Amino acid sequence: MTGGRIRAKIRQSNLYTFACLQTHAAETEELDQFPGPGYSRIIYCNEPHRHAKKPLKYRSNYISTTKYNVATFLPKALFEQFRRVANFYFLLTAVLSLTDVAPFSAVSMISPLAFVVGLSMAKEALEDWRRFIQDMKVNLGKVSVHKGNGVFAPKPWMKLQVGDVVKVEKDQFFPADLLLLSSSYDDGICYVETMNLDGETNLKVKRALEATLPFDDDGSFKDFTGKIRCEDPNPSLYTFVGNFEYDRQVYPLDPNQILLRDSKLRNTGYVYGVVIFTGHDSKVMQNATESPSKRSRIEKQMDKIIYILFSLLVLISVISSIGFAVKTDTQMPDWWYLQPFVDAKLYDPDRPALSGLFHLVTALILYGYLIPISLYVSIEVVKVLQAMFINHDIHMYDEETGTPAQARTSNLNEELGQVDTILSDKTGTLTCNQMNFLKCSVSGTAYGRRSSEVELAAAEQIAIDFKGPDSDLTFRSGAGVSEIEMETVVSREEGKDHQKPTIKGFSFEDMRLMNGNWLKEPDPHFILLFFRILAICHTAIPEVNETGGFTYEAESPDEGAFLVAAREFGFEFCRRTQSSIFVRERYPSYEVPVEREYKILNLLDFTSKRKRMSVIVRDEDGMIFLFCKGADSIIFERLAKNGRMFEEATTKHLNDYGEAGLRTLALSYRKLEEAEYTAWNNEFHKAKISIGGDREATLERLSDMMERDLVLVGATAVEDKLQKGVPQCIDKLAQAGLKIWVLTGDKMETAINIGFACSLLRQGMKQICITANTDMLDQDSRQAVKENILMQITNASQMVKLEKDPRAAFALIIDGKTLTYALENDMKHQFLNLAVDCASVICCRVSPKQKALVTRLVKEGTGKTTLAIGDGANDVGMIQEADIGVGISGVEGMQAVMASDFSIAQFQFLERLLVVHGHWCYKRIAQMICYFFYKNIAFGLTLFYFEAFTGFSGQSVYNDWYMLLFNVLLTSLPVISLGVFEQDVSSEICLQFPALYQQGPKNLFFNWYKIFGWMGNGLYSSLIIFFLNLVIFFDQAFRSGGQTADMSAVGTIMFTCIIWAVNCQIALTMSHFTWIQHLFVWGSIATWYLFLLLYGMMSPVYSGNAFQLLIEALAPSPSYWCATLLVTIACNLPYLAHISFQRWLHPMDHHVIQEIKYYKKDVEDRVMWTRERSKARQETQIGFTARVDAKIRQLRGRLTKKHSPVDAGPQVVN
Amino acid sequence: MFTQQELPACKPILTPPWVITAFVSVGIIFIPIGLASLFASEHVVEIIDRYDKDCVPSNYTNNALAYIQSTQTNKTCTRHLIIPERMKSPIYVYYQLENFYQNHRRYIKNRNDYQLRSRAYEFDVDDCDPEAKTERGPIVPCGLIAWSLFNDTYRFSLQNEVIQVSKQDIVWKSDQNHKFGSNVYPKNFQSSGLIGGARLNQSIPLSKQVDLIVWMRTAALPTFRKLYGKIEVELEANQNLTVLIQNNYNTYSFAGKKKLVLSTTSWIGGKNDFLGIAYLAVGGLCLFVAISFVLLYLLKPRPLEDPSYLSWNINPAGLSN
């Protein structure tokens, strides 16, 4: 075990000077307040059997996130189903259908409801089953548990009990909340990664009690017992109160000894711990909020339509029951053939009001066809199928990790097509959290040829724009082309032979520094220093890996990259002891590398306030050096007069690196005299051991004293490796008109760097940084700080408003502390208004809660659809809060994915998810719902018209079976095929013309105009169907035998017309016919005839008057066919005319593109096609295309100034 | 292919030729159909004679109800019909009732198909209340529909020569063969209590009771015609047809009209101008739309694949801002 070997050599904790102590101080203060509810939990360590019965029996470590279990499924799921207003209505009608009031037979009411509800419940069950499987995966994870007699054996997580002693190995997750007893390090510390809890990637140190340190091997637990009294389960991650009774002594416990479930052991071989909180008692589970059920915008709007239809239903029901009451009162007594006064029950002419009331119920059931019962279930079926397409999309399948995209909840598919703002996490989402050493600048010379991904992406974009057709050239930039090309060609060609870096963390490519060639450079002395600083100034630990090489466990990935770089340059950091660092230095002149020892005298730690770290070392020659690395601004102000020789050149390089989206640090050194150092060290040591309030301040002051008069050596540029395809994806999303906010827990500098890397920021963009002055925080009242921030926001808003240049772009950068104030009720709207005006918004140092708050602010403040994307547990709040939550899967930690609505393996798949699937699903669902209402209005109203001819008695003209099958069989499959397979344009075109996406956020397909249009169409169709048929089959013979049409014939003819009309209508609506659509649409019509045939062949006892209706009466009658043709055409004519006119006069984007594709113009006229593709973007200020445009403008501006001030050249259009 | 949503598909779009072709072809198909059916309808000769009013003797004019309900009054009534045009055989004889709600929910359910079909179900009188049974047993056929069977009769004569009215084939074959049993005989029908409409000969099985069978096919609307019989001789123009009506059926209580209809048929059925007119109208409308499209395409041309109609070209400043 590698950790074990290290343990023997060093006490790593020594290296952490005041950073650790600081956190201690802060946390102990909190402890004094004694938070948490109760203080009753008692745990007998190593005696889990004592927890087997009450009152010490605590919850097991089994976790369950399912909604139902076997027993509760039926009642709970049924309740969920009938909470939907429409379903409840149908339940009511089904119950009433058992009485005489109902106009239909009970079977025809109950069976569709049972079908619909059954299907929905089956879907619920399936989704819950998946959750169960996922839970079980966690529950069955193995951990090594003390079985007694010092023997440890693996046990599944779910079997873990309070009081168990467990051994957790390196890189394992803690199975429950544990009390740390000992670790592989002698001093009982261990490193923990809490990414899943708070999203922070840096490691945290936990420290065992002194008393438990001896228990550091399996055998020692043979007779171990102890008793813990502590707080009851609570969700606070950063507090813990309790004490530990061991060996008749009581030791207080604090959060430092607590290892939380779902955090991970890092850099430590193993730890022993006692289980304190299990399963749902653990802090992380206590934090879990029930994932809110989300409903899409369209679905909410659909509810409104349902309410409109309900009102219509009630209205016509009231009309018909009034009509009925009047008829019953005035006319019915005369209808002797009804024997109205005998046993009249529901038709009592003596009590018309009561009869009318009964009739109201009947009518409400009868006209129920206005409310499409199958709508919900059809939508659910469609969404499940759409989700299946998303899951199976090969273009969203990550081959490396083998993870496909996954639609975890299928009810938000169409919402994907309406997203307005994307809120993205940074680490793990945009970036891989892997640093690559890419460039450096030493003694004023820049090294490193390889371009960053940002540069490559931009170069590619320029290439597309300029290598395109000639017309494009002049179109876009006029005379500036050649110059720009010169600038870009270089980087592009370099990009061509771009190979994947074989060494992780090292992408540097420049032979001048490699293989010892640096000795031939002009300033080899500085280069040597540069390498040494890289190799020495850090806090990392080396580990030997299988191949004999070294890997480095560093606190931050930057340091890791530096060490890898140093190793590649020939300065391999190979060993760290308590007081020394050993570096194997390789020079071309020597055969074997020399191992040199550098004695570490002091280490001045990195903090976000200091923004630098230093080590003071003594080399083998006895010389004392201070090596310092830090943010350029900090280093530059500390340079000695004679240390500034490279300042100018380095600054220029730093700017270039920054623009290329690289993280930069400046490196410097100082040579110290023995005496000078000794004097300083004495004071420093004194300060360190002193106790008192000003200790920190003194240390700070002393460090500051030492880190002066530095000599600048150079600068490093590290690429925070973006995930694959991120710049391109962001660019496309920006072109699709989406706004992108980055919410990150990282430092502001890092966030800005990534902003550059993702092209969310660029040179020339005005950055508005809103920060609370940290010094002010301590002294001034909250009010003053708030006013200060408000002023900053107001000023910035003013500036944005007053900006004349339409091309000016603003970026808002705000940190977490400021955000606390900005998110308060009285300020948040100003903040939001400013943020909306800015092209990009970056929030750094935000807590998970703030992420959720920002998301809520955007969601509620703008009223637009938000999408949150993240990978870690710290993004869970944001993912749950947003309209759509997307989790990045494939990386460790499943919390974000578990909470998400969709999961994708890489950020770049978001483009396809939104632009292709979102666009399609939105249109499909929108059209599908509109059509649903159309068809049910067309059908339902005919029932109403007929009522007027039956004295409002509640008789339907159709056979019960027809009505039953109408929604379930005869019209459902075509509309499902519309919802599943419709494509207005192909996926390639969706991607090529991102502007098409805007049809969704603008809601062009589900606005009230469309909805009422479709309803009107339904009304029209119902009128045509009913009255044309009525007149045609009024009283005349329709058969050659002279027979007139009876009710069953009229009903069947009308129904035939309806089936034809609605199915032809959907065929007109579709623009994409595969064999499936053909089968469903025409098959539905065929099914109707088939049904009629089969139904007619059944015994007349069952089929009644429909017996042999088709073969005997209708089919031989020409007027039946004539009427069908007439009515079908008449129903669809206005719609056809309307869409033809619309298309001609006001074509929508997809219309034109369909036409271009139809006429194969894209193949004939490539120029036009490319030009349109490049133009099909929303005006955007972010993404590298915008960056390229800005660059072109800048160059063009320079050119026009140079050439002639009069000729402004052609206008840039976008 | 399927899961990637890349199934081969045809993607028809509404190009002007397609639209115009569609409309024109609808017009071209519809107008001949319209003309043909109008032509057919024109050849149908139809005589409608409303007799309910005129058949009430003048002394009962203000009390028609008393007249019809009385068993004492003479219900016979003679009508003279002038044949307007030559009527080819067969000439269908209909009775037409108006304001008679055969489609009322209480009425339409008031029958029992089991009972009608088979003797075994004689006692099956569900849904037949209040005409379900008497003290002597179940009523066959039960229910209000059968009970209110139309009972006016017509006798035709031409210059004192009686013209036979055939009842052959006036019912749906399937009704006769499958729905009304040949072993089911009327029982207790119109025997007590209120007397509704016609009585049935107890010795004739239901399958032979054609008037009942016709009546039991309930009409969809309150105005309806039902086949009474066929006259299988030709009637020449201007011939004077004498009809002897037994005016028994009470429509006076609810002011329903009774009409006697004689009509020939054509391939579209009876006289039905509306079908032809509707076809002509829709066809004409289609042609009109087609023409207006042609005009539109000429006046406001838009090359179909013209990219300048794309939204980003119409509104170059971008859509979202």
Give a written overview of the molecule:
The complex is a heterodimer of chains A (1214) and B (321). Chain A is α+β, with helices and mostly antiparallel strands and 1214 residues long. Chain A has 42 helices and 33 strands. In chain A, strand 22 (594-604) and strand 23 (612-618) form a beta hairpin. In chain A, helix 31 packs antiparallel against helix 35. The model of chain A is unreliable at 1-36, 468-501 and 1204-1214 (pLDDT under 50). Chain B is an alpha+beta fold and 321 residues long. Helix content of chain B is 28%, strand content 17%. Chain B is built from nine helices and eleven strands. The two termini of chain B are 39 Å apart. The interface between A and B is large, with 114 and 105 residues.
List keywords for this structure.
heterodimer; A: 1214 residues; alpha+beta; nine-stranded antiparallel beta sheet; 42 helices; disordered N terminus; B: 321 residues; five-stranded antiparallel beta sheet; 11 strands; disordered C terminus
Strand content of chain A: 15-25%
Structural class of chain A: alpha+beta
Q: Rg of chain B to the nearest angstrom?
A: 29 Å
CA radius of gyration of chain A: 37 Å
- Helix coverage percent of residues of chain B? 25-40%
Oligomer state equals heterodimer
Percent in helix of chain A: 40-55%
Unreliable segments of 5+ consecutive residues of chain A: 1-36, 468-501, 1204-1214
Derived structural class of chain B: alpha+beta
Strand content of chain B: 15-25%
Shape of chain B: extended
The beta-strand count of chain B equals 11
Number of helices of chain B: 9
Q: What would you call the shape of chain A?
A: elongated
- Distance from N terminus to C terminus of chain A (CA atoms, Å) equals 61 Å
The biggest sheet of chain B amounts to: 5 strands, antiparallel
| Main sheet specs of chain A | 9 strands, mixed
Mean pLDDT of chain A: 81
Order of helices and strands of chain B: HEHEEHHEEHEEEHHEEEHH
